[in-house]
Design a protein that fits this description.
It is built from 7 helices and 5 strands; from the N terminus they run βββββααααααα. With 251 residues, it is an alpha+beta fold. Strands 1, 2, 3, 4 and 5 form a 5-stranded antiparallel beta sheet that branches. Strand 3 and strand 4 form a beta hairpin. It is elongated and about 90 Å long.
Length: 251
C-alpha cells in the first residue's frame, strides 16, 4: 500500500522548499508535491499526472501491498481469468434465477407463498446436506491438486445453474431438478473455498496471504456488481425469448 512520507523541507537562497513524497517503500518513493516560498513569491507544483496519482490510490483497494513484487508472476493472469469467469457466472446466474423464479410461480395468481417457500426450503436444505457429505468424503483430498478441484468447482457451478435453467421444462420433477442443482452448487462452495486458501498461500511471497485474500474479495465484489448489472440487462432483453436465453447462457 502506498503511503505518504512526512513532508521534507530545506532552505536555499533565502527561500523555503517543502516537498511531499509518496510510495510503498523507501526505495520506491516518488515526489508528488513541491511548495517553494520566499519573501516575494510562493509556488506550488504537483509532480506527476493527477490521473496517475488517483489511479494508484484506487488500485490500492484491489491489489496487495507491494504489488507486483509481493506476489508470484502467475498472480495477474490467474486473477484476470478468475474475474472474467466470475463476471460471466453472475450473468448466467441472473438468467438461471429468472427461470427458477418463473418455475416456482412468481407472477402467477395460482402460486401460493407457502408452496414457493417450501420448495425454496427443500432446495437450500439439500444443498447444505450435499456440502456436508462432499466435505466428509473429499475434504482431505482438496489440497492434493488445487487446480483440478478449482476446475471441478467451476464445472459443478455451471451444472447447478443449468439445472435451474431447465427446471421450468420439467414441472412434474421441478423439486428434484432444483435440488440436484443445489447439491451441485454446494460442491462448488466447498471445493472453491478450500482451493482458494491453497492458491492464496501459493501467491504470497511476503507472508501477505491475508492481504491477498482481502484484495481478492474486493476484486470479486467488483466483478459481482458488474456481472449483476449486465445480468439484469441481459435478462431484461431476453425475457420471453427462450432461444435468446439459451444462447446468452452458453455464450
Amino acid at each position: 500500500m502506498e503511503t505518504s512520507s512526512p513532508p521534507s523541507s530545506y532552505v536555499l537562497n533565502n527561500s523555503l522548499t517543502l516537498e511531499e513524497w509518496n510510495g510503498s517503500s523507501p526505495a520506491k518513493l516518488s515526489k508528488t508535491f513541491t511548495i517553494k516560498a520566499s519573501s516575494s513569491f510562493v509556488t506550488i507544483t504537483r509532480s506527476g499526472a493527477r490521473f496517475t496519482h488517483v489511479w494508484r490510490r484506487l488500485l490500492q483497494a484491489f491489489v496487495p501491498e507491494g504489488f507486483p513484487s509481493s506476489v508470484t508472476a502467475d498472480y495477474v493472469p490467474f486473477q484476470i481469468w478468475d474475474s472474467l469467469q466470475g463476471l460471466s457466472t453472475y450473468i448466467r446466474t441472473m438468467l438461471s434465477t429468472q427461470a427458477l423464479l418463473s418455475a416456482i410461480g412468481v407472477g402467477e395468481k395460482s402460486a401460493t407463498v407457502i408452496g414457493a417457500t417450501f420448495q425454496w426450503f427443500l432446495r437450500d436444505l439439500t444443498g447444505m446436506l450435499g456440502g456436508i457429505l462432499f466435505t466428509f468424503y473429499q475434504g482431505s483430498n482438496l489440497d492434493s491438486n488445487a487446480k483440478m478441484w478449482r476446475l471441478v468447482a467451476d464445472l459443478m457451478n455451471d451444472l447447478g445453474m443449468l439445472m435451474d435453467l431447465i427446471s421450468p421444462l420439467f414441472p412434474s420433477a421441478f423439486v428434484f431438478v432444483v435440488c440436484l442443482g443445489s447439491i451441485s452448487r454446494s460442491f462448488t462452495g466447498v471445493a472453491s473455498g478450500a482451493t482458494r486458501a491453497a492458491l492464496t498461500q501459493h501467491f504470497a511471497l511476503q507472508d501477505n496471504a491475508a492481504d491477498i485474500s482481502a484484495k481478492e474479495g474486493s476484486q470479486e465484489t467488483m466483478a459481482t456488481m458488474i456481472g449483476m448489472a449486465l445480468g439484469m440487462l441481459v435478462a431484461r432483453i431476453t425475457i420471453g425469448h427462450p432461444l435468446a436465453i439459451w444462447f446468452s447462457f452458453y455464450l
